[in-house]
């Protein structure tokens, strides 16, 4: 890479805080039911049909909100992280399904003494009534969509095909549900309930237009092209992109971008952490492990090939760090964003102690080890390189085995773990293990920052804590919907 021009300090890009996002989500999902309740749009003689209507309105709102949570909007995910946003998207899909189930069940079991015979005859009437066709189809398709997304995401089909199919099915579910609401729901005729749903539908449509029309144009606007692409090891390549000077692209060390190779639609794009620093612009460097079609084709890319760059994205940046020591834990190709951050700290001659634990399969897989050690010379730096197998030609320079609390204690000797910030990036199993030993080593939960390369919810302590918070938000939607029904029944 060429030498850096100027250092850009990490800064928080404009994005909504977690609290603001929670308030917005509650307002947008439970708000239409509350508005309809206030205006009398859910009127019925007894409580259960009112609650059923409130659940129906909320289910529709939740389905429409799914388009906003999956649209990779930095204003939405910039502060909390895209992995958490996608985790919320998945959890909210299940909650929307539960809301649909509540909507149906409450209508089926309404009345003073619902006998099994009456419930079954109502069910048969719903399934066969022409007015209910779109509602039934929407609910059925929503079940299929969520089960398939949970069980087969990225398996069996090429990822872009899966993504397109998922998006198209989601549009169909929402369109059918909207039609069902317009045909059957009284609240759609009143200005408050109907207006709120119309606004959400417009936002969902705007989000689709942005993702499929605006973003593809924006990604190529910077004019990035392949400058060089080469293999570093049998499984890892380095890709360097360059754009004309003054491209306008900016990022913080540790962030990532979606890359589209060649002049294709961005639906084929893949996310990669930027391994260079902002001062290297207009060049961007990536370290890419062969994982499939796109990543495996990287070393064969010809110089000059246009590359769409959608970004920057992600909250895995030094803006999340405190004033205390910085501990980086990287597994395999997870070293890419860590390299960017350590390089940034080195160029800045940062005074904070910087510690690194990097794991790889063999010593040769520590592809940027020499570079890291060189960067460490300008820092209060210590590193531990771990390997699963193999030895260096010059003798053992890496330790065998996985990271333990003993390793962390050794690296952090003389430093205060409670004041440290840990940045973790690597395969899911390694992240889970790392979160556990970091907590055992005294690093506070809210000072463990993670970058997930698979967007899966994960099963570590940090993820579990986040999931509990998300579940609380979704439970609040159900509570507000019940409150809306209570208001409407007065
Ligand atoms: C925030 C983030 C940063 C990443 N940074 C790096 C990096 O610096 N270096 C690196 O080698 N890898 C990185 N990855 C992983 C990388 O994106 C995948 O390995 C790559 O997309 C595989 O694509 P493929 O076409 O080669 O393989 P495919 O055969 O298409 O897919 C293999 C697997 O990769 C995942 N995947 C594919 N496309 C996408 C997509 N568009 N979005 C999310 N997941 C996808 C799927 O789980 C799929 O099962 C990162 C991932 C994320 C989410």
Q: Could you please describe the fold and organization of this structure?
A:
The protein has 490 residues and is α/β, with parallel strands linked by helices. The protein has 3 domains: 18-218 and 470-489; 222-313, Beta Barrel (Elongation Factor Tu (Ef-tu), domain 3); 323-456, Nucleotide-binding domain of ferredoxin-NADP reductase (FNR) module (Rossmann fold, 3-Layer(aba) Sandwich), CATH 3.40.50.80. It has 14 helices and 12 strands. The strands form 3 sheets. Strands 10-9-8-7-11-12 form a 6-stranded parallel beta sheet, sandwiched between helices. A hairpin with an 8-residue loop joins strand 3 (256-261) and strand 4. Helix 2 (47-69) runs antiparallel to helix 4 (82-108) and helix 2 packs across helix 14. The longest helix has 31 residues, at 191-221. The protein is elongated and about 75 Å long. Residues 2-8 have low confidence and may be disordered. The protein binds flavin-adenine dinucleotide.
Short structural summary:
This protein is α/β, with parallel strands linked by helices.
């Amino acid at each position: 890479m060429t030498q850096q021009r100027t250092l850009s300090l990490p800064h928080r890009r404009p994005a909504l805080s977690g609290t603001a996002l929670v308030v917005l989500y509650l307002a947008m999902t439970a708000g239409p039911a509350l508005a309809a309740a206030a205006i009398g749009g859910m009127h019925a003689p007894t409580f259960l049909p009112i609650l059923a209507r409130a659940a129906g309105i909320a289910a529709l709102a939740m389905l429409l909100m799914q388009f906003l949570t999956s649209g990779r909007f930095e204003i939405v995910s910039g502060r909390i992280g895209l992995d958490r946003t996608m985790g919320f998207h998945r959890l909210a899909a299940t909650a929307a399904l539960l809301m649909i189930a509540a909507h149906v069940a409450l209508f089926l079991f309404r009345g003073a003494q619902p006998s099994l015979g009456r419930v079954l005859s109502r069910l048969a009437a719903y399934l066969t009534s022409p007015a209910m066709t779109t509602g039934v189809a929407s609910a059925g398709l929503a079940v299929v969509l969520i089960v398939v997304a949970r069980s087969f995401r990225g398996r069996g089909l090429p990822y872009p095909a899966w993504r397109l199919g998922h998006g198209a099915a989601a549009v169909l579910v929402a369109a059918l549900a909207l039609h069902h609401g317009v045909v059957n729901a009284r609240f759609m005729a009143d200005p408050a309930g109907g207006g709120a749903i119309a606004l959400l539908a417009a936002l969902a449509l705007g989000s689709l237009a942005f993702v499929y029309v605006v973003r593809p144009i924006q990604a190529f606007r910077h004019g990035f092209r392949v400058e060089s692409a080469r293999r570093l090891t049998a499984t890892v390549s380095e890709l360097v992109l360059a754009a004309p000077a003054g491209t306008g692209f900016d990022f913080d060390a540790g962030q990532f971008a979606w890359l589209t190779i060649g002049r294709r639609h961005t639906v084929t794009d893949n996310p990669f952490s930027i391994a260079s620093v902002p001062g290297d612009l207009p060049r961007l460097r990536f370290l890419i492990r062969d994982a499939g079609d796109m990543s495996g084709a990287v070393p064969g890319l010809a110089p000059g090939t246009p590359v769409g760059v959608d970004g920057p994205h992600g909250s895995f940046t030094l803006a999340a760090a405190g004033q205390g020591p910085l501990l980086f834990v990287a597994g395999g190709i997870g070293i890419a964003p860590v390299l960017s951050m350590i390089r940034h700290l080195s160029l800045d001659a940062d005074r904070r102690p910087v510690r690194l634990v990097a794991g790889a399969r063999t010593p040769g897989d520590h592809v940027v080890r020499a570079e890291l050690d060189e960067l460490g010379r300008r820092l209060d730096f210590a590193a531990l390189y771990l390997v699963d197998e193999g030895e260096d030609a010059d003798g053992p320079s890496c330790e065998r085995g996985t990271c333990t609390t003993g390793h962390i204690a050794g690296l952090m000797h003389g430093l205060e773990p409670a004041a440290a910030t840990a940045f973790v990036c690597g395969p899911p199993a390694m992240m889970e293990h790392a979160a556990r030993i970091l907590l055992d080593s005294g690093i506070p939960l809210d000072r463990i920052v993670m970058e997930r390369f698979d967007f899966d919810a994960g099963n570590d302590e940090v993820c579990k804590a986040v999931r509990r918070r998300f579940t609380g938000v979704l439970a609040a939607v159900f509570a507000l919907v019940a409150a809306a029904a209570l208001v409407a029944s007065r």
